[in-house]
């Protein structure tokens, strides 16, 4: 089992920035990919970005390209999501999750999930 703890969410004005962090512990040897997802009220969960645990490859959904950056923090056994130029439509609960295997990029199946952190973009 992998335990994931997200942090860094909060209230920010449009155009502002937030940095989310996902710290992993436990059986991190089973992790192939870590993904960031988000879910807004009344909408389905969607992937935001993903990174191989090795850091060798990244993925960004269209709305995240050019604004969000996913990266590894090896010292803290964590993955960060730097979010810039935030828009009201970015408001959602953001989750991190691990995938144990690939088969496609990004992986389709995730087995461990964090508790989520709320991001609210409003003036």
Would you write up a description of this structure?
- There is one protein chain.
- By secondary structure, the chain is mainly beta.
- Helix content is 0%, strand content 50%.
- Strands 2, 4, 5, 6, 9, 10 and 11 form a seven-stranded mixed beta sheet that branches. A four-stranded antiparallel beta sheet has the order 1-3-8-7, with no helix packed on it.
- The chain is globular and about 40 Å long.
- The N and C termini lie far apart (40 Å).
Quick summary of this structure?
The protein has about 120 residues and is mostly beta strands.
Q: Layout of helices and strands, plus pairs?
A:
Layout (H helix, E strand, L loop, with lengths): L1 E6 L2 E3 L5 E9 L6 E7 L6 E7 L5 E3 L7 E6 L4 E6 L8 E8 L12 E2 L3 E5 L2
Parallel strand pairs: 2-11
Antiparallel strand pairs: 1-3, 3-8, 4-5, 4-9, 5-6, 7-8, 9-10, 9-11
* Range of helix content: under 10%
Low-confidence stretches: none
Derived structural class: mainly beta
* Secondary-structure element order, N to C: EEEEEEEEEEE
How big is the Rg?
Answer: 13 Å
